[in-house]
Amino acid sequence: MVLIMTKAENLELRNTIRQTWLRLSTKTPNLYIHKFVIGMDEVKNNHFIEEEMNKHSDLLLVNLTNESYKNLAKKTLMAFSSVSEQFKFDYLLKVDDDSFVRLGALLNALKDIEQHPLLYWGFLDGRAKPMRGGKWAENEWRLCDRYLPYQLGGGYILGQKLVNYISKNAHLFQLYRNEDVSVGAWLAGLKVRYVHDPRFDTEWTSRGCNNEYLITHKKSINEMQTLFKSLSSFGVLCYPSEYRLRPSYIYDFSKLPSECCTRRNGSKIP
C-alpha cells in the first residue's frame, strides 16, 4: 500500500508523480495500490478534483476540515484508519508528494531485509530535540527532552499490524504537530522492528543524489522529471554523476538514542 500525502491544489505534482516514478513501476502493478491523500474539506465544490477522481480513481479523501501543517498527524491517522478498513496489504509506504521513489527497487529491497509484521523502516532519528518555536514547534510535547526514535517523514514503511494498531487506537493518541514524530511516539513501547536505512533520503532537506537511494525527498517538479529521465534513459538515478550536500549516518543501536547518530564527512554511506 502506497500513501502519498498531498493537497488539492497540488495537481501538477500529482500528475508529475503519475508520469514519473509511478510510471516506472507499471511493470509490477499488482504488487501495490497507490492513493493520494487529500483532506475532504478542500474538494468541496472543486470540479477539478471531481475530474481528477473520474480520470484516475487514485484519490483517498479523509474527513479533514483544515488542511494545514499542524493537522498532518491527524490527516495521517485518518489515512491509516481508512486503508486499514478498506484494503488488505502486508506493508504500507507513506511518502510526501515532493518525494521521488524507486518503487521497484524498494520492493526488491523489502525482500532482502528481515520480513517482520511490526516492521518500521526508514531513516531513523533518536537524538532530535523538540522545538518550541516556529513552524515545527511542539508545545504539547512533554514526554522527555528529546523526541522518541522516529523515522523521518519524507518516506517510511510500516508493517500491516502496526497500521492496524494505530487505526484501532486512534482515539487514544496525542496528536503532535509533526506527523513523523507522532508516529514514532504512537509506536514507542511496542515490539517494533526498527530498521534504519541510509538509502532513505527523507530528512527535512535532501542529502544530495546517490544511485542507491530508494526514496529522495524535497524534490521539485523539474527535479522529479530529471530523475525520471535519468532512470529511464541511463538506468541510474543520478546522471551524469552522484553528489553529496550533507553527510549521512548509521544508527548505533548499542547506544542510547541521544548518542545514536553521528554524521561523518567523507563516509561512503549514501
Automatic annotation (TrEMBL):
GO terms for biological process: glycosaminoglycan biosynthetic process; protein O-linked glycosylation. The keyword rRNA processing does not apply. It is a single-pass type II membrane protein. It comes from the Eukaryota. InterPro entries: Glyco_trans_31 (IPR002659). Pathway: Glycan metabolism; heparan sulfate biosynthesis; Glycan metabolism; chondroitin sulfate biosynthesis. Keywords: Glycoprotein, Glycosyltransferase, Golgi apparatus, Manganese, Membrane, Signal-anchor, Transferase, Transmembrane, Transmembrane helix. It is found in: Golgi apparatus membrane. Gene3D superfamilies: 3.90.550.50. Its cofactor is Mn(2+). GO terms for cellular component: Golgi membrane. One of its GO terms (molecular function) is galactosylxylosylprotein 3-beta-galactosyltransferase activity. Its EC number is 2.4.1.-. Belongs to the glycosyltransferase 31 family. This is Hexosyltransferase. It comes from Meloidogyne enterolobii (Root-knot nematode worm). The lineage of its organism: Eukaryota, Metazoa, Ecdysozoa, Nematoda, Chromadorea.
